[in-house]
Amino acid sequence: MLVKHRINASLNWIETRKLNEREKNTLLDEYKISDEVLEYVLDTYEQSNYIHEPEDEQELVILHMPAKSQENNRYTTKPIAFLIKDNNLFTFNESNLSLMNHDMNKETGQERIDTPVSFMLEKIYFLMSSYFPVLREVTRQRHVLDDMLTKKLTNKELVKLAYLQQSLTFILNAAESNVEALTILEKSKFGKELSNVEKERLEDALIEAEQIVHMAELEAKIVDKIAKIFDSIMNNNLNDTMKFLT
Asked: Who is most buried in 69, 181, 193, 233, counting CB within 10 A?
């Protein structure tokens, strides 16, 4: 999908998801996006990053957002990308993340959105905020498993615990890489030339990203402790069984 939204006289938002070959050629030929940049934004394994291309005057920001697997109630993360070129802001969502689709279409303060840069920073802030409901869901899952400590443990609970640990590993790694990418952006020549309002919004997004890291670290430590208790209980149960059999 490739859709052009006319926001105002100095800003076009080109929204893309799961591009086909014809749409890729449109980006290459009509919008003059380089092959290298297109390769970055279409790679579903690309890490969070900020890339400045002085020759083509392109600013590329890649961040990771949570993606929930409905099959096993587990979270992974997928990259999304923002590309600024001329008066255009391109957004790339090759994994078709629902969080990205939802937050990009949210109403925001129009006084902030008058250029591709201000539009991008506003949306990055909202996307960072989207992590908090995910972390609350992870915390809820952890409480459910915590309550199981006083009951008979089964393999089902152990699998849920393993999924929870995996989810937190993905979330924490993504959150840390998001902070790194936004920090590089803030300290870059491009970041230092932002207006005061734009700098403030970037700082807001960075604060949100850092808070996500702190919350994910804390939750991961708690889940690891629960895992050790689970392991201890299972070992004790196994020892009791072996004594009985002996």
From this structure: 181
What is the torsional sign of CA 80, 188, 39, 75?
negative
Instruction: Identify whether the C-beta of residue 170 lies closer than 8 Å to the C-beta of residue 64.
Output: no
Q: Which residues are 8's β-sheet partners?
A: 11
Q: Which two tokens stand for residue 115?
A: 């250029």
Instruction: Quick: pLDDT tens for 130-164.
Output: 899 999 999 999 998 888 776 766 778 888 888 99
pLDDT, tens only, 58-81: 899 999 999 988 777 789 999 999
Q: What is the pTM of this model?
A: 0.89
Q: How far is it, in rounded angstroms, from Cα 155 to Cα 32?
A: 54
The number of angstroms, rounded, from the C-alpha of 115 to the middle of its chain's C-alpha atoms is: 23
Largest Cα separation within the chain, whole Å, is 82
Could you list the beta-strand ranges (E) of the chain: 2-8, 11-16, 49-53, 58-69, 74-85, 88-92
